[in-house]
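Dear colleagues,

As part of the handover before I leave the project, I'm documenting each prediction I ran so the next person doesn't have to rerun anything. This entry is a single chain, and its sequence is reproduced below.
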Amino acid sequence: MNSLSIMDGGGRRWLTTTGMNPPRRVVDVDDELTADEAYRLAVSGTGLTWHGDFPNARNLLAAMGRRCPSAAGKSFQDKRNHQSRRARILGRLLVPLDSGHVLPLRRGPDVRAACTEVYGPSETASLVSLPELLGVVGAHEWRVKGVEIPALGAKIHPHHGVFSPVRGEYVDLVAKSPLPATELAFDIGTGTGVLAAVLARRGVQRVVATDTEPRALACARENFERLGFAGIETLETDLFPPGRAPLIVCNPPWLPARAHTPLERAVYDPGSRMLHAFLDRLPRHLTPGGEAWLILSDLAELLGLRTRDQLLAAFRRSGLEVLGRKDTRPKHPRATDPRDPLHAARAKEVTSLWRLTTRAEPAPD
């Protein structure tokens, strides 16, 4: 959810999609500010409102990032905490926006369309962290450009705050696994709608896509219309729609850890709450003899956040049995990037499609 508050000194509104609070103290800075001084002020909690050249602001942000300590050798949770602190420090480099989301900086890009998509129309001056603005602009470019999905022969256009399907291996698993039925499928936590669209492309006659996030459903509906699948039903609900289906697909967040931003909720699931809720309620929504396709990476296991025995035990507790599993290796760039803090685990990562069914028919909700 977008957070808006009034800043002291100048009356500019604070824009954020991450829930980060505005700095209590803000000073005006320009191209004369050194990276060492900028980093010192940011670490102390001071916000730096930039009034110089925009490319120089980006260069300063990069220089501040190089001054942040390394997270090498830390545990996963320590790395997460380090990442959060780094984001807070770098997020104190701020840029002003005039009414209409006009960026009043030398050589500044036109950010009006990108900001309007995320924050809505603006008739007042505002202030936004430079990392957030760069993220908003980058998301707008992805939304315009789209992500090529070979299984669809078309592109999916992600919105800001909705996880982009750049990791194509999980899409390919759904595209290539034999369908147990074609009359009805549920896509739980649809996000951009990519898996629902793949099911419809494969001939599933009726697909119901659910999500708890209105922005995700808006993104999915836009993609369905663009792809010619306007008949796919969307529903804002916690996990399941009413009734049962012979095929239920779910690609939940893969890591049982706390999300620091709304976008991270697509990756992090504290205490595996969504995963366990999906498994526990699944038997009441799967038709007898039907299949649930659960797409999970084993990254949590490689990081020591969950064991394979704990996952299998969760299946058994929910009255589920495994019909089979199909595995694949990630192909995205981070899987082979030695600079990634999680490289040792990512190099071994396997993504799996678990085919689950019920052991006995439970009473419906």
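DSSP finds twelve helices and 15 strands in the chain. The domain at 146-358 is CATH 3.40.50.150 (Rossmann fold).

All the best with the project,
I.
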